Amino acid sequence: MRRNDPVKHFFLWPAVLAVLIIAIFPLIFSLANSFMSLRLIPPLPPRFVGLDNYIHILGTERFWQVVQTTSLIAFTSVALQYAIGFSIALALVKRVRGADFFRVAFLLPMLVAPVAVALVARQILNPTMGPLNQLTTFFGFPNLPFLTDASWALGSLIMVEIWQWTPFVVLLLLAGLQGLPDDIYEAAELENASPWKQFWTITFPMMLPISAAVIFIRIVESFKIIDTVFVMTGGGPGISTETLSLFAYQEGFKKFNLGYTSALSFLFLFVVLGMSLLYLSILKPYLEKYK
């Protein structure tokens, strides 16, 4: 078949249209539902309410607290993932002893299902029977409220996120470091530049584009966190660890308030989109220097 053969459209367009229909129809249907009062339990006839669902959500304190909690988990965990991941990637690219073993070992947490990780973490951090609290009481310290105190529960969720997803950061940053040219470092060594100076003047600036991409991916993914929170804390104590995805789940699958949930999902989309645009606008001047 030639490159410009029109027959190719016969095979391509049905697949393209099928993908568009599957992707766009649920989006349009959900958007339409967001302007409706639609409940399954108790069953009520659909009723057009316009922007009432959006106004009601934006006027509730719970929504803003959930946005704050999700942002705290996302930004804190991603910042620490990047710092730890960059440090590990720098160590591995220098061919330290046992680097091949550590490359495989560091990737293992990322391969485990988040639900399984959360189940194990919940058992380890159990306030009464968990091995971590048994260890603290063995040394004479009181039980720590890892999952029963708001601050401790948030910290526990952030630590689990860091443990599981730092390997993803390591994997991408290590690939970027291995692609850096050696001649620049050789020239820097001839000028007696210290390793610290080489990092800040060569490595970090040249890694900025891939670093921005890694952080962007992880922030978007972290805003969608639900499985770890659902298993470890269920959003508690109270709603102190409830995230946007869990909030939407509670409204949609427990209260069956579909119109309200659809509006909440689109507000969730707008929050993530706004954060993404702000992040990209801040980094744009720096990224243009290294195109």
State the gist of this model:
The chain is an all-alpha fold. It has 12 helices and 2 strands, in the order αββααααααααααα.
Give structural notes:
The chain has one domain: Orthogonal Bundle (MetI-like fold), CATH 1.10.3720.10. 73% of the residues lie in helices and 1% in strands. The chain is built from twelve helices and two strands. Strands 1-2 form a two-stranded antiparallel sheet. The longest helix has 33 residues. It starts with 6 loop residues before the first helix and ends with a helix.
How is this fold's topology laid out?
Blueprint: H1 7-33, E1 36-37, E2 47-48, H2 52-58, H3 61-93, H4 99-111, H5 114-124, H6 131-138, H7 150-178, H8 182-190, H9 195-223, H10 227-232, H11 244-254, H12 258-287
Antiparallel strand pairs: 1-2
Helix pairs in contact: 1-12, 3-7, 3-9, 4-7, 7-9, 9-12, 11-12
How many whole angstroms does the radius of gyration measure?
A: 24 Å
The proportion of strand residues reads under 5%
In N-to-C order, the SSE pattern is HEEHHHHHHHHHHH
CATH topology: MetI-like fold
- Separate helix tally: 12
Quaternary organisation of the protein chains: single chain
CATH architecture: Orthogonal Bundle
Please tell me the overall pLDDT.
86
Extended strand count: 2
Largest sheet: 2 strands, antiparallel
> What is the CATH H-level superfamily?
MetI-like
Number of domains: 1
CATH class: Mainly Alpha
Strand arrangement, largest sheet?
Answer: 1-2
Structural class: mainly alpha
Q: Which shape, going by the Cα principal axes?
A: globular
The proportion of residues forming helix, as a percent range, comes to over 70%
- Through-space gap between termini: 37 Å
Q: Low-confidence segments, ≥5 residues, pLDDT <50?
A: none
